[in-house]
Write a structure and sequence with these properties.
Distance between the termini: 17 Å
Strand content: 5-15%
Number of helices: 9
Number of strands: 6
Helix content: 40-55%
Radius of gyration: 20 Å
């Protein structure tokens, strides 16, 4: 049985690049028709926004985020697909400017391909919540780092501890909300010194939610914050965070085992994001670069649910 990202090595990269561009360009065109032109000045660029996002996907999937290697590879072997390839500096500037557009493209793809729906065509109401550390530098160089200077938060808030690594870190935490099938619904970057439970409200800021069940691990177990989330958004939201084993109100052993088995799916999603797309190693030098690389890698992860089946259905030639 093929896994989610096996298509990366099974099929020809030329076919993968083509499918990615078509999917991204269709979604971008739909956004353009709905919201209009987002540029307010200057001529229309020769190298389209869809091409910039596609090259960014290639960089974060096949070259661990190395834009210079990606541009050199595409220029040497796939210039027929991207004949107007820009310079490295121009590409990086446009990529950072398109970080929010890339996220909107992902939202469009979620709706077009029904990735948030069950087998009956209805939106699923079960969500899994977890987080992963995103360090921006080594802990010893934290006082010299300038990545967070563009934020309005004090520097001390970005010092935290990674329980999985059993080490101190400086940077952000990526908070994910996925379906029970591992599809990322929403995400945000929060200072790593902030308690995980405090980021729950921000995952659906400004959205009206109904009949939603959220399952989180013990790091999100903060009774006061859970009560605020339920009260502030919607009374029909049910948020379950695993209590400690010595809690006054422990879960039954069978129910705890059942929840743990379901939560393995978001842990698998985080594992794929970390091992295949290097989400924990952004390699950025600015806050805008960090957001751009994070949004692109989550977009690449989302496209994996579409790309593999498409390649198989239409009988694209494998590399073997």
């Amino acid at each position: 049985m093929e896994s989610l990202t096996d298509f990366i090595t099974l099929y020809r990269w030329n076919d993968i690049f083509t499918i990615w561009f078509v999917l991204v360009d269709d979604a971008h065109t739909l956004l353009h028709r709905h919201f209009g032109e987002w540029r307010t000045r200057g001529p229309k660029p020769v190298f389209a926004d869809s091409e910039v996002i596609t090259i960014a996907l290639i960089a974060d999937t096949f070259f661990a985020g190395r834009e210079d290697k990606t541009l050199a590879f595409v220029r040497q072997y796939h210039l027929e697909l991207f004949p107007h390839l820009p310079s490295a500096g121009c590409f990086n500037t446009r990529r950072r400017a398109l970080s929010l557009i890339a996220e909107q493209v992902r939202r469009v793809l979620l709706g077009q391909w029904g990735l948030l729906e069950n087998g009956e065509g209805e939106h699923t109401t079960d969500r899994l919540v977890d987080s992963a550390p995103i360090p921006v530098c080594t802990y010893t160089r934290a006082k010299e780092n300038r990545t967070i200077e563009q934020t309005c938060q004090p520097r001390d808030l970005y010092f935290g501890v990674s329980a999985s690594r059993k080490a101190k870190l400086f940077g952000f935490r990526l908070h994910l909300e996925t379906t029970t099938q591992g599809v990322v619904d929403s995400w945000l970057l929060a200072p790593c010194g902030m308690h995980d439970s405090q980021a729950l409200a921000g995952l659906h800021m400004g959205e009206e939610l109904h009949n939603l069940t959220m399952l989180a691990d013990g790091a999100f177990n903060n009774p006061s914050w859970l009560a605020q989330v339920r009260h502030r958004q919607d009374s029909s939201i049910r948020l379950w965070a695993t209590p400690r084993l010595d809690s006054r109100h422990p879960w039954p052993a069978e129910f705890r085992t059942f929840i743990t088995r379901i939560r393995r799916r978001i842990e698998t999603a985080l594992s794929v994001l970390c091992t295949v797309f290097n989400i924990e190693q952004p390699g950025s030098r600015s806050l805008t670069g960090l957001v751009a690389r994070t949004s692109t890698r989550i977009l690449a992860y989302t496209l994996a649910f579409i790309t593999g089946p498409l390649l198989a259905i239409f009988g694209f030639q494998t590399q073997n």
